[in-house]
Amino acid sequence: MDGLRRFGLLFLALLLPACGSGGGGGGGGSGLPPTLRPRVYFQADKNTVGTNELFAVLDDDTVVNLSGVPVPGGNLLTWRPSFDGKWVAFVADKDMDEVEELYVAPSTGGPAVKVSGAMVAGGDVYRIVWWSPDSSRVLFLADREVDETFELYTATPTGLIPNKVSGTLVPGGDVYYASFGWAGSRIVYAADQNVDGQNEIFSVAPDGSGAVELTESVSATARSIEFDVSPDGLQVALFAVSTPGAPEQIYAVPASGGAPVTFSGGLAGGVIRLAYRGWSPDQSKYAYVENAELYTINVDGTNRTKVSTSTVFSGSMSWSPDSAYLLYRFGLTAQAGVAGSEVDVVNPLGGGETLGFIGWSTKGHGISYSKGGAAKALFVTSAGVAGGGTQISATPGWAVDVGLFMWVENDTSLVFVGDETTDGFLELYKSPLAGSPHVNLSSPALEGGILAFYLSYDSTTIYFSACREVAGTFELYSIPAAGGALKKLSGPMVAGGRVGFLLPAH
């Protein structure tokens, strides 16, 4: 789901061991008082095994079905809440099997409205949709007018005729499926709009007016398919080739068009796209890999600094929440703007040990990570400090395996998934940073145990999906992050049903 907002996401793969058989049945409702608001959304085959639907749990613990019952063979495919918390957009083949369309439903329940309009035979909505920052429109990609010609549209939650914003495409042209989104009040996308096969980056208003070709800010011959929008939506970093055959470089351009600022150094090796780049959270700097080394630069183009000392060639890169450090290549950190400040914070690794998950605390520059052999334990350390830190999880006689984790209670504790109590039974534990005492938040567990968990936006509540009462059935629960009573939220489930993806509401 939404990478533009802060989530406490830690999500286990859906392919956990089956739990067996047994269960119940149930559904949802609507027509609720307007004062009620959703607490958490969840996707589940709650009514029919294998048929996913979208639900919300409201303030009074009522469960409402937001997507409704699809036609036989139909399914919920993807979904995204609006930023104001009033709507949920979802893609589903709800009305016709194998025809994927876009719908919007009120977040507290009520009829879902199809907003993608009429589809040409063979047309579908692509499964990534984005809400505008003001929640007034939803942006989607579809071949709704010509089969296999994908164009970009906006729709209102009330279902007016969708507005095409990608302009007129040349024969064979398409909006690139992985590169479109909002930049503040504007839309940015990649397309071979003018010449088939020549991808460029465009910016346009939500009504389709004021179109600007951002790559032309770099040069008349610039080509690009990837961009990176600044947190405030005002700047767009382009990964562009300025002339045919030249190495790819990074340029920052105003979202509405204008003179570029060159971020990269023009080295012959060019820049690495995808996982190795990004704006700092405070928008003061940009980080990127060029010629196999990690650099930071001020957003005005000053103080370009090589912060790494070793070759950066694998893993990914991310900023600390306080914008002070970068974490990259499976356990290296460097201080932004400080040359050669690389430190290995996870070593020493023992014989046969590898790293598992690694991530930042919610504030500052704390780091938690798992390491070990086939099974892994959880550790906590800080950016810029070598030596491996403190082990948090226990090490019982069997092969304990810590999966995923998140920081809670103002970064004073960690919540993590592991099989500390019973081998192969994943449960949810909380521990202070010193490593003890441990608290089991989800006990008891049946085989498989925890499937997914999230922290609420106000950091007070943990929501998780687990197999703990009925074999074969994964249900939704909540528990206060500070400890307290566990509550089941998902209501009755069909035998073998499972709550899969879940997301707290604002």
Describe the structure.
With 506 residues, this protein is mainly beta. It has a 5-stranded antiparallel sheet, with no helix packed on it. A 4-stranded antiparallel sheet has the order 4-3-2-41, with no helix packed on it. It is flat and about 65 Å long.
* Rg measurement, Å: 24 Å
Strand order of the largest sheet: 1-37-38-39-40
Helix content: under 10%
Largest beta-sheet characterization: 5 strands, antiparallel
Task: Write down the overall geometry.
Answer: flat
Strand element count: 41
Summary, kept brief:
With 506 residues, the protein is mainly β. It is built from one helix and 41 strands.
Name the descriptors.
mainly beta; 41 strands; four-stranded antiparallel β-sheet; about 500 residues; flat; disordered N terminus; five-stranded antiparallel β-sheet; single chain
Helices, strands, pairings?
Blueprint: E1 10-11, E2 38-48, E3 51-58, E4 63-65, E5 76-81, E6 87-92, E7 101-106, E8 113-114, E9 125-131, E10 138-146, E11 149-155, E12 163-164, E13 175-183, E14 186-191, E15 200-204, E16 212-213, H1 215-218, E17 223-229, E18 235-241, E19 249-254, E20 261-262, E21 271-279, E22 285-290, E23 293-298, E24 305-306, E25 317-319, E26 325-328, E27 332-335, E28 343-344, E29 354-360, E30 366-372, E31 376-382, E32 390-391, E33 405-408, E34 413-422, E35 425-432, E36 439-440, E37 450-455, E38 461-466, E39 475-480, E40 487-488, E41 499-504
Antiparallel strand pairs: 1-37, 2-3, 2-41, 3-4, 5-6, 6-7, 7-8, 9-10, 10-11, 11-12, 13-14, 14-15, 15-16, 17-18, 18-19, 19-20, 21-22, 22-23, 23-24, 25-26, 26-27, 27-28, 29-30, 30-31, 31-32, 33-34, 34-35, 35-36, 37-38, 38-39, 39-40
